[in-house]
Specification:
Belongs to the enoyl-CoA hydratase/isomerase family. By secondary structure, the protein is α/β, with parallel strands linked by helices.
Length: 263
């Protein structure tokens, strides 16, 4: 296995981003943060990527930031670590922003522990498949810290404000079944089925109208940040461009022909 903290590969249109610090429960350090941002930039700028599979090595998905590494980096910081940690958070957040705003759908395969900023890494995905042994919690306050990695936005979006507050303001850990009930994850499968199920979801995106899936993702995420009129205008532009594209022309013609045969 590579020693890289973030593994990135593109094969037949599928980008795979893998958190790869299993000895630290995939908590991210500066190397991982740089790799995360680079992978996100590739997804958002390359035209040969139609879907992303986000996963992790080892027994955990992600334990957030590597507090030990941050403490060591902050040793000579005259601000007491404030500037150091803010800079690292800014870099993580830029990666999250690029993935969130990209017109590329993302599926996450999640196993083991997901805590703190790990929730944000997970929730940047559009569809989340979890192992039935996965567990989920905030735990920021255990170390006197506050949410980062988009958790203050992504968690309420996923489960609603009341449940987001319950998870954030307590030491509660959710089981995979509870996470499914809350709407935190889309599916729960056996550990040995996790990778195959996530890949199957990605393959649907890649084998269908890939561009349409990506634009649908973009429209839905953008809708919550602007006026209804702006969303309607964007929808009109997007469906017009999609209708004129060769992929849609072929599919529309096939649908019309099938409809005519059945009339």
């Amino acid at each position: 296995m590579s020693d890289d903290a973030i593994l990135f590969d593109v094969t037949d249109g599928l980008a795979r981003i893998t958190l790869n610090r299993p000895d630290r429960l995939n908590a991210v350090d500066p190397e991982a943060i740089a790799g995360w941002r680079a992978a996100a930039e590739a997804v958002s700028t390359r035209d040969d990527i139609g879907a992303v599979l986000l996963d992790a090595t080892g027994r955990a998905f992600c334990a957030g930031g590597d507090v030990r590494a941050m403490s060591e980096l902050s040793a000579n910081d005259p601000t007491g670590g404030e500037a150091t940690v803010k800079g690292l958070a800014d870099d993580i957040h830029e990666g999250h922003r690029m993935l969130r705003e990209s017109a590329v759908p993302i599926v996450a395969a999640v196993q083991g522990v997901v805590v703190g900023g790990g929730l944000g890494f997970m929730l940047v995905a559009d569809v989340i498949v979890a192992s039935d042994r996965a567990t989920f919690g905030s735990r920021y306050a255990d170390m006197g810290l506050t949410p980062d990695c988009g958790v203050s936005t992504l968690l309420p979006e996923a489960v609603g404000m009341r449940r987001a507050l319950e998870l954030t303001l307590s030491d509660r850990m959710l089981t995979a079944a509870e996470a499914y009930e809350w709407g935190l994850v889309a599916e729960v499968v056996a550990p040995d089925e996790l990778d195959a199920r996530a890949r199957a979801i990605a393959e649907v995106w890649l084998s269908g109208a890939t561009g349409a899936y990506g634009q649908a993702k973009r429209l839905l995420h953008a809708g919550g940040t602007r006026s209804f009129r702006d969303s309607l205008d964007d929808e009109a532009r997007t469906i017009g461009a999609a209708f004129a594209a060769p992929e849609a022309q072929r599919r529309v013609a096939a649908f019309a022909a099938a409809s005519a045969r059945g009339a």
